Amino acid sequence: MTPVQEAVILMAGQGSRLRGADTTFLKPFVRVDGRRLISYTLDVLVHGGIRTAHFVVGYESERVIAGVKQLVPPGLSASFLENHRWQKQNGVSLLVAAGHVTRPFLLTMSDHIFENAIVDRLLGSFAPEFLNVAVDRKLNSIFDLNDAMKVQTRKNTIINIGKDLRDYDAIDIGLFVCPVEIFDYLERAKSGSDKNDCSLSDGIRLMARDNKVRAIDISESWWQDVDTPEMLQRAESQMVRKNQSALL
Question: N vs C: which end of the chain shows fewer Cβ within 10 Å?
Answer without folding.
Answer: C
